[in-house]
Amino acid sequence: MGEVGGSSMKTTIWARVRWWCSTWMNLRLRHLFCGSRWAMALKMNSLWKRVIPLKIQISGNEDGEASSDDSEGIVHTRGLLLNETEDAQLQGLLPLSDGFVGFAFVHRLTRTDIRLGMMKIPKKVAAATPFEEQGVVGISVDGRRFKKISYKTADDGRIVFGRKKWKDFAASRGLKVNTAVLIGFKSSERDDVHVLVILKKLG
């Protein structure tokens, strides 16, 4: 009887030891697993915060919204970011000479501008420049080889260039998607051209 009782007690003790070991290991593994999930969640949250502003900047650039800096007399596409080279060149070109009128427009050419040929000038820029309801502009890069392109005023007040001739002009002058440009405007002395549009590539 004594031996049987002792054996039973030993079995019970070892069962309890195994249960405690198993429970401790499960808790440890759960802690490690949850900890790794928490670390992953923090990392993803950090990456998400980095990605969101970039999307906002791209969408603002693509839809053609504009904001202005009246102290410099320029209007730029909302969300526009210039690199150091582009910004240095822009500062070297400003302010524009007295022959220019209205606001200068700083813009990074988009897929819509180049591939679809839908180049638009913001309402604020158009209102300060002698555009009419519709007509013809003389457009050039660096003031050389002007090309006549028709334009019209859209319902939202922006100036829209004729699609086919603008696409031909952009292709012939090497204007590409993501090219940053400074666009200035001059009054024209010709009867068949209302406004001279002069682009300067940045970078």
Automatic annotation (TrEMBL):
GO terms for molecular function: DNA binding. It comes from the Eukaryota. One of its GO terms (cellular component) is nucleus. Gene3D superfamilies: DNA-binding pseudobarrel domain. It is found in: Nucleus. Its main location: nucleus. InterPro entries: DNA-bd_pseudobarrel_sf. Transmembrane segments: none annotated. Keywords: DNA-binding, Nucleus, Transcription, Transcription regulation. This is TF-B3 domain-containing protein. It comes from Aegilops tauschii subsp. strangulata (Goatgrass).
